[in-house]
């Protein structure tokens, strides 16, 4: 295959999903946080499975409770929840992806990995989670792991960092 025909989806599949350490991966723009390329392991129980359902849902409302116990509605823009993690260093309403809420765990600023430095955020949900890594080229790598598929937080993070290093070496292109 010619190099210019090699898509981000193919690259994510061959260099990250193929490690069997992650269940899905995507690239989001650092400008709006919206995922523009993604791959995911097939769901044997759902022949209608669409990988995009893991990474994107139109803006929607959730109910949040303020400090006085009053319930209010809040509009969730998933891309903005990703960006908030890197801008603010936390995500009070969680990180939302594909309509699923991930609890923000931590952010590691300037994490050094094999000669490269990245900002890495980790979020969790029941039996899984995700890693967000700012990578060269104005992108955010989004990596999901699923403990029911024998993935774990540590190995999926190493796979994500290895992929991020490859992107850094290529200048993010």
UniProtKB/TrEMBL annotation:
Superkingdom per UniProt: Eukaryota
Subunit organization: Binds actin.
A GO cellular-component term linked to this record: actin cytoskeleton
Organism: Plasmodium coatneyi
Molecular function terms, GO-annotated: actin monomer binding; phospholipid binding
GO BP terms: actin cytoskeleton organization; cytoplasmic actin-based contraction involved in cell motility
Listed name of the protein: Profilin
Subcellular location: Cytoplasm, Cytoskeleton
InterPro entries linked to this entry: PFN (IPR048278), PFN_sf (IPR036140), Profilin_apicomplexa (IPR016814)
Family: Belongs to the profilin family.
Site (Interaction with Pro-rich sequence): 36
The UniProt record lists the keyword Transit peptide: no
Job description of the protein: Binds to proline rich sequences in various regulatory formin-like proteins and also to membrane phospholipids. Binds to actin and affects the structure of the cytoskeleton.
